[in-house]
Amino acid sequence: MIKYTGIRRLALLVLTIGVLTSCGDDFLNPKPTTALEDEEVFTSLTNAKAALIGAYDQLSSYSFDGLYLPIMADLTGEDVMLNSERNYNWFVPVYQLNVLSNYQYASRPWSAGYKIIYDANKIIEGAPNLPDATDEEISALVAEAKVMRAYAYLKMVEVFAPAYAADPDAPGVLLVTKPLQYDAPDVGRSPVSDVYEQIIADLTYGANTLDDALETGFFGKKAAQALLARAYLDMQEWEKARDWAKLAYEDMELMKFDEMLGGFFSSNRETIFALAYTPEDNNIYLSIPSFYWPVSGYSSMRANDKFVENFENGDVRLYYFLKEPAIDADNWLILKFQHNQSVGNAERIAIRAAEMYLIEAECEAELGNWKNAQDALYMVQNRAHPGVEKSTNTGQELIDEILLERRKELFGEGFRWNDIKRRNLSFMREGDHWVKLDFGPNDDDYYRLTFPIPQKELDANNALDEGDQNKGY
């Protein structure tokens, strides 16, 4: 039997060159024509690099980080909402916090994530055998694949497992670091702490091995450093998260006031890593700008009115919101993400320097270093709102201000869901949300912030049974 996880498909595995199929289930089908067999991939460095590019393409697919994960991460929050009309039934259960184990919003990211992890494992295992590569070239290839594996695992554990800070011993996801044979024993869920331990190991190797990427569409040293900052932030290892964040933004400039008006559809001066996708990759309309931009696409994302009230006059980010009766008489449109000349053609900026400053600010505040926290926070606030006064808050008031700034700066970029989970915050929707929710970490409904393990995985994996399903499902 071919397992749904995608971690054991030796008979059907292909490491593709160019465009991979974007549907999370498609890797179970016979090989596409644009593919190399296993024995061909590791006959040359060129082939191995092409296989890695294929994995990047899977990373940017709509089933994973090109659309599903970032858009769901904001819909599973209080700042961004789905239009109650003309939403074409896309992401409605996500917005309602009612995703079940047989829904595509759970199964497709799971499938795509394990396809990425499997391909990364193949490269990590096969690269040392490349006959025409130097030791340095092999190390760089392995490091890039390890960062990719860590990127995928960090997304997976944040979505499908309880937060590390809530319970590091809770069941996490399926931790696999080698490409398993078709008939290998099934793999069960590893503790959340073990998954993070592997993520940290992979990213540390990448940070110590890679140079800065020549292009933002590839993982380099700064991307590994930034992801280490994210992982340690989840773990509430404040000093380590702060130090890696500072390394990640070192020698980088934040976007200027006027640059922020240009929106987010291509890399800019503060981009650390970006996912590029094209109409061919994402089926034209299955892209971030298709759902956010008010015209030319699904155009179903809206900003909550209570969230918009947080932006003061003079803040350039206030211009990301528009009331246009001809399009939507009742709700705030969002202008932050746009198409690049044609529908579905854009880059999704996945990691940028402003996030690193906000990680630094949060960590310094948690460590009681109020001035350092205020300084880091001011770097983000001042360039978006010139003339704003530097915060004088301390303690919880300062932490709350930093968390609000994360919401204002990073909305639509896929952070709010995990921010609520990792901080064990209450979930409350007010204002013009058409699905209102109000629950805290001690309430029964808190399970909704963790997605179910897909039913297909439970059915196919002999190491799992219904008792391995997440609480509440």
Verbal overview:
The chain has 473 residues and is mostly helical. It has a single domain (15-468), classed as Serine Threonine Protein Phosphatase 5, Tetratricopeptide repeat, CATH 1.25.40.390. It contains 18 helices and twelve strands. The protein has helices spanning 38-41, 45-59, 68-75, 92-95, 104-126, 135-160, 192-209, 221-234, 238-249, 257-260, 279-282, 288-292, 305-308, 353-366, 370-384, 395-410, 416-422, 455-460; strands at 15-16, 35-36, 80-82, 171-174, 189-191, 271-277, 301-303, 321-324, 328-334, 346-352, 427-428, 438-439. The strands form six sheets. Strands 1-2 form a two-stranded antiparallel sheet. A two-stranded antiparallel ribbon has the order 3-7. Strand 8 (321-324) and strand 9 (328-334) form a beta hairpin. The longest helix is centred in the N-terminal third of the chain and has 26 residues, at 135-160. The relative contact order is 0.14.
How would you describe the oligomerization state of the chains in this entry? single chain
* Total discrete domains: 1
The CATH class label is: Mainly Alpha
Helix-strand sequence: EEHHHEHHHEEHHHHEHHEHEEEHHHHEEH
Number of helices: 18
> Low-confidence stretches at least 5 residues in length (pLDDT < 50)?
1-35
Strand order of the largest sheet: 1-2
Largest sheet, strands/sense/barrel:
2 strands, antiparallel
Give me the Rg, rounded.
Answer: 21 Å
What distance lies between the first and last C-alpha atoms, to the nearest angstrom? 26 Å
What is the 3D form? globular
Helical percent range? 40-55%
What fraction strand?
A: 5-15%
Class by alpha and beta content: mainly alpha
Mean pLDDT: 91
How many strands?
Answer: 12
- CATH domain fold name: Serine Threonine Protein Phosphatase 5, Tetratricopeptide repeat
